[in-house]
Amino acid sequence: MEDTFAARLRDARRVRDLTQEGLAELAGLSAQAIGLLERGVRRFPHPTTIDKLDKALQLTPEELAAFKRLAARGAVSPTATQAKPAGPAWVVARQLPSANAGFAGRTHQVDQLTDLLSGTPAQPGSPIVATIRGMAGVGKTALAIQAAHASADQYPDGTFLVNLRGFGAGTPVSPLHAIGQLLRGTGVPADAVPGSLVEAVAALRSRLADRRVLLVLDNAHDVGQVAELIPAASGSAVLITSRATLTALPASLHLQLEPMPADESVRLLETIAGADQLVPDAPRVAELCGHLPLALSVAGAWLVRHPSESGAELASRLEDESRRLDLLGVDDLDVRASLSLSIEQLNRSADPLDHSAAQALTLLSLSDAEDFTAETAAALIDTQPADADRLLERLTDLHLLESRAPGRYLFHDLVRAFGRELAGRLSESDRAAALDRSLALYLAVAWRANEMGDPKAARMAWPDRPSAPTFPTFAHLEQALAWIDDELRNCLALVDQVRTLGGRDELAAGLIVGLYNYFAMRGSMSDWLPAIDRVTAGRIDRWTLAQLHADAAIALAEVARYDESAERFGLAREVFESIGNLRGVSLATNNKARLLIRMHRYREALPLVEHALAVNQQLGNERGLAASQLTLTEVYTELGDWSAAEAASTAAVELFSAADDESGAANARIDRAWARAKSGNPEAAVTDIVQAMGVLDVLGYRKSVSDGHYVLGMVYAQLKDFDSAIEQTEHALEVALDVGDLRREAQARLELGRVLNDIGEPDDAVPNLEFALAFYREHDAALVPPTEDLLEAARKAAGA
C-alpha cells in the first residue's frame, strides 16, 4: 500500500463501508474536502481535521498515529520527492510576518480564501489565484496574511511575501526584480538569477514546477506587474492585494474588500482598546472612522495611549471633520499618509487621465452631495459627462470612490475629508466656481421640469430663470421628474451648502421655487417645506419672497396645517400687492379661498373668490379666471348648490381648455363630475372622470389621479355598484400611500370605511375609519363628529 495520507484515509473509509459523503457528514466536513484529501491535493490537513476524522472513523491508536505522521509538514511521498527538478538546493521559505494578534472580524472573507487555498484550481494545470482589492486602509494585506497563515500547512514548500510597492514611495517593483527576490528566496544564488525578464520568468516557472508554494504579492500596481510572477503549474497558489481593480487577471476569486460591518468594527476597536473604555461610545467612534480597519486601529491605539480619556471624548474630537485625519495618525499607522499614496501615484503617472482624476477628486470632495453621476460630476469638474465618466471609473478602479449602484459614485467619509484637505490648496474663487457650476445644473433641470409641465405658470416670470440645460436632455416631463427623484437629496444639500458661501441666496431660493412642479406632481411636501423656510430667511428679491410664501402655504395645506397655510397665503398676497404684481395677488387670493373651503369656512371664502375673479377679469387672464371658477365650484359643492357647481365647473373646463391647460381642464372635469352625479346624471359623471384621469395619468399628475379615483368611487357608490366603488377607492388609497399624502389617505379611508360598513363588512371598515378619525382629530375638527358616528356604527356591527 502506498504510504500517503490520501491512501490511508481512502482505505480507512472503505474498510468501514462509508462513502465520501457519509464520512463528510459524520466528520462535519464537506464532501469536497474529503475528496481533496483522498486525491492528495490536500496532503497536510490541519490537526483539527485529523481530530474530526478520528472521531468519525473511530481510528485505532496505530491508525491515528499514522494519520498524524503522514499529515505532518515535510511528510512527502517518495515519488513526489523524486519529481522535484534538479537545481540549487530548495529552501523552504517562511516569509510571512507574524499573525496579527489584534485581527478581528472578516470571518466570511477568511473562510472564502482558506477554502479556496485548500481546494483545486478551476483550470487543470493552473495555480489557485485570488485577488483582494479595496481602498487604502481597508485591511487587504492583513486579510491576505491571515488567510495565508491559516493555509500555510497546505503549502509545505514555502510561503513567500513580496511587497510590490504599487502604491507608495518610490517606483513600483519591476517584475524582473520581484522574480529575482522569489528565486533567491527558494535558494537560488544571487549570481544565478537571470538578467532578462524572459529568462527570469522561465527560471521561476521551472523552479516552482511540482512545488506547493503560496505567494503573497502585496500592493500590486496593475495586472502587468503581477502576470509574470504567477506559477504556470498547479499545486501552488497566489494571493494578490491591490488598490487597483485587477479583474482582467484570470483568477479563481476576485474579492472586493469593503469597510467593516458595524458590529465587526466595534469588535476590532474593543480588541485593541478594551471594551470598558469605549462603552457605550464604540458604535459612534466606529462610524466616525468610516468602519475602516486602519482608522479603527489608530483610534484604538489613541485610547490605549490616553487611558484617562473616554470613548465619548474621542468621538467628540472625531466629529470635527477638519481635525479628523490629524487624530487618525499615530506612529506608522496614518490614514492621511495611506490615502496620499494613491494621489501621489496618480500625479506621478504618465497618463494624462490619471492627472485629471487627481484634480477631479479634489473638486468632487467640495460638494456635500451624497453621491455623483457622470452628469453631476461633469458640472463640478467643468467637463463633459463622457469625460467625467472616465474619471469616475478611474477613481473607482483605485477605490478612491465607491460605486454601489450602476452609474452612481460616492466617497468614503475619510476619503472626502482627505479630498477637502487637498481642496484647501485651491483658491477660494476656484472652490466657489465648482459649486456654482453644480448649482447652475440643478437650477436648469428644475426649471426645465417646470417649463415642460406648465410653461404658462405665473412662476415662470422669475427673472433669473435659466435656459434649458446642455445636459442632461429630456424628451418628456417624466424623464425630468425621474432625474430629480434620483437627485433630490443632493439638490437640497447643495441649496444649504451654497447659502453658506454668501451672495447666492436668490439663486438658492430660485432653485426651491423651481422645484414646485416636481413636488406638486410626485414629491413629499415634508421635504419641500423646510427647504422653503430656510431660503426664505435669505437676502432675496421681493417677488421671490412672495412666491416662497405662496409655495409654503401650498405645502402646509397639503400636510393639513391649515391655520399656518392661511397665514402664509396672506403674507404672499401682501408682498405681491406691495410690488404691484396683480397676477400674484389673484393666485394667492384664490388659493386662500380654496384653503378656507377645506377648513369649512365657506362664507369667508366666497368674497375672496369674487375678488380673484375681478382681478383676473381686469388682467384678461383666462387661466386665472378658470382657477377662480374652479374655486367657486368647490364653494357651491360644499353648500349643496349642485346646479351652480356644475355651471361654474363647466366654465372652468372651457376657460382652461381655451388657455391650453390640459391638467386644469381635467381637474375641472373631476369637480364637475361630482356636481353632475349629485344632480342626477351619474353616467355623465363617470364619462367626465374617466376622460380626466386618462389625461392626468399621461401628464403624470398622480395626486390628481388619486382624486379622480376617489370621486369615481363615490359616484359608483351612489349607483349602488359597490364592488366598483371599493375598487376605485382602493386605487385612490394606493396612490395616496405611494406619494405619502396623509390627507388624501384619510379621505380615501373614510369613504372606504363608509362603503364597507354599508355592504356588511364592518370588520374591514373599522381600521380604515380609525385611521381617518385619528387624522381628523389632529387636522380637521369639523370632520371628527361624522367620522366618530360612522366608526361607532361599524364597531357595533362588528360586535353583533
Structure, explained:
This protein has 800 residues and is mainly alpha-helical. The chain has six domains: 5-83, Orthogonal Bundle (434 Repressor (Amino-terminal Domain)), CATH 1.10.260.40; 93-256, 3-Layer(aba) Sandwich (Rossmann fold); 262-331; 337-426, Winged helix-like DNA-binding domain superfamily/Winged helix DNA-binding domain (Arc Repressor Mutant, subunit A); 541-660, Tetratricopeptide repeat domain (Serine Threonine Protein Phosphatase 5, Tetratricopeptide repeat, Alpha Horseshoe), CATH 1.25.40.10; 694-705 and 714-799, Tetratricopeptide repeat domain (Serine Threonine Protein Phosphatase 5, Tetratricopeptide repeat, Alpha Horseshoe). It is built from 40 helices and ten strands. The strands form three sheets. A six-stranded parallel beta sheet has the order 1-3-4-5-2-6, sandwiched between helices. A two-stranded antiparallel ribbon has the order 7-8. Strand 9 and strand 10 (408-410) form a beta hairpin. Helix 25 runs antiparallel to helix 27. The protein is elongated and about 105 Å long. This is Tetratricopeptide repeat protein. InterPro entries: Cro/C1-type_HTH, Lambda_DNA-bd_dom_sf, NB-ARC, P-loop_NTPase, TPR-like_helical_dom_sf, TPR_rpt. Residues 9-64 form the HTH cro/C1-type domain.
